[in-house]
User: Fold this.
Amino acid sequence: MILAIGAACVAGCTTHPRGGGRPVVTAERDPAAPRWTTIATPGDRARLETLTDSWTRARAAVPKRLARRMKEEGALLDPAGALDLPALSPGSYRCRLVRLGGRAGYASFAPDFCYVDGDGAGLSFTKQTGTTLPGGWLHPDTDRRQVFLGTVRTAAAEIAPPYGTTPARDIAGVVERVGPLRWRLVMTRAGQGAILDLYELVPVPPAPPATPR
Assistant:
């Protein structure tokens, strides 16, 4: 047992002398940990870790009379539906909110528009239309998901507070690809007393070239 602990410390610990006496062992951050783990608030990290449980509770809360509608969504509402290559490409998307749990049990809303922008700082995500407008950054995580960290503003507000400064506005989520040109953004917080909110993301087709007159 002592040998096992010693071997682990070789990989993840550093000794620092203290006042010339016995060395003090301190643990270093795992260099392989995704960068988002150093940015996310403790609350959002906890909610991301329990997202699987939220899926289970949300699906169980859908009334049997609406089970067919949920099944028609296919992989979008399948917790195990994530595919490889999750990264969103820059561009415009139709983003349709699907809400599970709460008073309605299941609800699907008319699509709004979202935009993914890419620059040297990374990928940003912004919901452009609707009454609730999440926006933030997309962070690499695993080969099947990206992590979204951002804030929510209302349509009446011009600027959202920076992430991590206003807990009531902070929001996190997971981006997963669930089919050809089809993604979902699963949020860790839901509105209207629901258990799970997610957005279906589908690229907006490019406009056809203008016909010469």
User: Anything to note?
Assistant: Residues 1-21, 23-29 have pLDDT under 50 and may be disordered. Residues 35-203 form one domain.
